[in-house]
Amino acid sequence: MPQQKRPIRLLRNLNAKIAAVPMMLTATFVFAGGSLWTVLYSFTSSKLLPRFSFVGAEQYERLWAAPRWNVAVENLFIYGALSLIFQFVIGFLLAALLDQKIRFEDTFRTIFLYPFALSFVVTGLVWQWILNPDFGVQSVVRSLGWTNFEFNPLYDADIVIFGILIAALWQGTGLIMCLMLAGLRGIDEDIWKASRVDGIPTWKTYLFIVIPMMRPVFITTLVIIASGIVRVYDLVVAQTGGGPGIASEVPAKYVYDYMFHAQNLGQGFAASTMMLLSVAVVVVPWAYLEFGRRRHG
User: Fold this and answer.
1) How many CB atoms are closer than 10 A to CB 146?
2) Which residues constitute the domain of residue 167?
3) Backbone φ, ψ for residue 150 (5° rounding)
4) Residue ranges in 186-230 assigned as alpha helix (H)
5) Distance CA 248, CA 59 (A)
6) Quick one: average pLDDT of 112-123?
7) Which keywords does this chain's UniProt record carry (predicted)?
8) Residue 206: inside a domain
9) What is the pLDDT of residues 40-98, one digit of tens each?
């Protein structure tokens, strides 16, 4: 009987599967082919045009010896860690508040999600104005009487990455809130009723019952946030252009500058490969958690 069911399952929605074949082949060719091509040419001395002149790991040695790349990696680590923590925490707290069936829930949800509809360039320019010391937050607060107040993160090399983080949180937290809210709405109402009957505090219900049940939502959210962290580029260019100096440099900007401005494709390919490796570190465990355990579970 099981041997007869398997062919029948494979024939279900056969037309849809056949129609999806060209798209799957194209996506596989473009992604896998492009990735392999990038990795291969990262071991060459390509400059303006790709040229297969093998130089071993020379490009990677130059990459990790470059102060600019090390600053970019450090910035990405700081930005990524804080972005991940704050987006998770703020997004979950906002979702938990909206899940209380408050009045004007639709209005608040729209307000929180609206920034995500804007492009990163627009967001970067808006927050560049807001954080400008001449007519932004610092200027407004000083006009109210606090003349010694200072808040100009985009012009301070030590804290410029935090100015970019503020803009990223403003834009991305609304999406995380919606994902978390969808997860909370999927929790059976009987669980809440049982916890209230048993006298379990609300915070314990969230911590020991609700959050473990939302594991799939958390994993999906983690992948979305991590992919956005690795490819952050627009916000940096719009807000600081990588400055002051190279203080706000990020890997994506490093890749773009070396491939299209410095005309050093080999170095750009090496940096791209390191970015691809960082993405694989996130995607592979996620794929195992989502599909590997499901297959064995």
Assistant:
1) 11
2) 60-296
3) -130, 130
4) 189-197, 202-205, 211-213, 215-230
5) 23
6) 91
7) Cell membrane, Membrane, Transmembrane, Transmembrane helix, Transport
8) yes
9) 999 999 998 888 889 999 999 999 999 999 999 999 999 999 999 999 999 999 999 99
